[in-house]
UniProtKB/TrEMBL annotation:
Gene3D superfamilies documented for this protein: Ribosome hibernation promotion factor-like (3.30.160.100)
Pfam families xref list: Ribosomal_S30AE
Protein name: Sigma 54 modulation protein / S30EA ribosomal protein
Keywords from the named record: Ribonucleoprotein, Ribosomal protein
InterPro entries: RHF-like, RHF/RaiA
GO cellular component, one term: ribosome
Length: 127
């Protein structure tokens, strides 16, 4: 997974970049192509003015999260937690749909065994 870190208006320290890399490695997935991280400071009048935006590039829709807090490390951690939950939710949804398809095919095959005279075509089972 490629990690692109962009800091707007300041230079991110190597320690911060290492921290971001370690946090994003927890999201390592075979579908994740790259992660784009943007760090920037908001208006000076706000006490919690450190923003973090993370966009994961995966096939299909790219999940995007934006969080703010007093420290960049906290913002990054919150973003990674939300992205982890989103990826887990998408994975569970995909697995559930595959499980339903499996049950439908098995039911069709069992129904076909009751009717010995009728031939069941593969196309009929898959539908």
């Amino acid at each position: 997974m490629e990690i692109i870190i962009q800091s707007l208006g300041f230079t991110a320290s190597p320690a911060l970049e290492t921290f971001i890399g370690e946090k994003l490695q927890t999201l390592k997935n075979d579908r994740v192509v790259s992660a784009r991280v943007t760090l920037f400071k908001g208006p000076e009048s706000m006490p919690e003015n450190n923003y973090c935006e993370i966009r994961l590039e995966i096939p299909g829709n790219d999940p995007f999260v934006k969080k703010q807090s007093a420290y960049f490390e906290t913002s990054v951690s919150e973003c990674v937690e939300v992205l982890f939950a989103d990826l887990q939710k998408a994975k569970d949804k995909h697995l559930d749909s595959r499980k339903v398809q499996k049950e439908v095919i098995q039911d069709a095959l069992l129904a076909g065994e009751d009717d010995v005279d009728e031939d069941v075509e593969l196309e009929d089972v898959v539908k």
